[in-house]
Design goal:
Strand order of the largest sheet: 1-2
Radius of gyration: 20 Å
Helix content: 55-70%
Structural class: mainly alpha
Largest sheet: 2 strands, antiparallel
Number of helices: 6
Amino acid sequence: MTAPQARDHRAGDERAKAELLRYLQDARDALLWKLEGLSEYDARRPLTPTGTNLLGLVKHASGVELAYFGDTFDRPYFAGQEPPVWWYTRAAEPNDDMWATAEESRDRITGLYRAAWRHTDDTVGALPLDAVGRVPWWPEERAEVTLHHILVRVISDTQRHAGHADILRESLDGSVGATRASANIPPGDETWWAEHRARLEQAAQDAAGR
């Protein structure tokens, strides 16, 4: 590769990284936004039969970023210190990273998530997209990955959980919206939405032959 080609490749790499991080940041912001204004109980309580809860989603997302952008690329966040009991290397209970104990404050969990962002962003800034890492908890035959692969995977995972958070928050108090800046839903007052829901219910019943 010639020097101009190398410069163009690096410039393209940086543009791609900036775009990928923007989509990741959108999902990160959405997860934290869905916690705003909630009581400690509502932020933590299980809202599905499998225990899905809003603060637990943030805790899980923290671990995802710290592990995938830390240990995978030999940049461990917990180097030289004891990781939390729910960390994947410790003998934790199943789903330990998906809920918050009474002793874990909301500030502690959201603070760790923000620290994970910085750690991820540092890793992405330091490495090219084709940098190779190894996911320690994956089967050996597919453990080797690129930074690009992991960015796409974590964006997908975080956006998925942001969608979970959308539904959970709406079920709590009716709050909706994709982001703070853009609700991304049709305008309508309470009456309009009630009529819309009734129309959907009728369509479902008609389709079922009820």
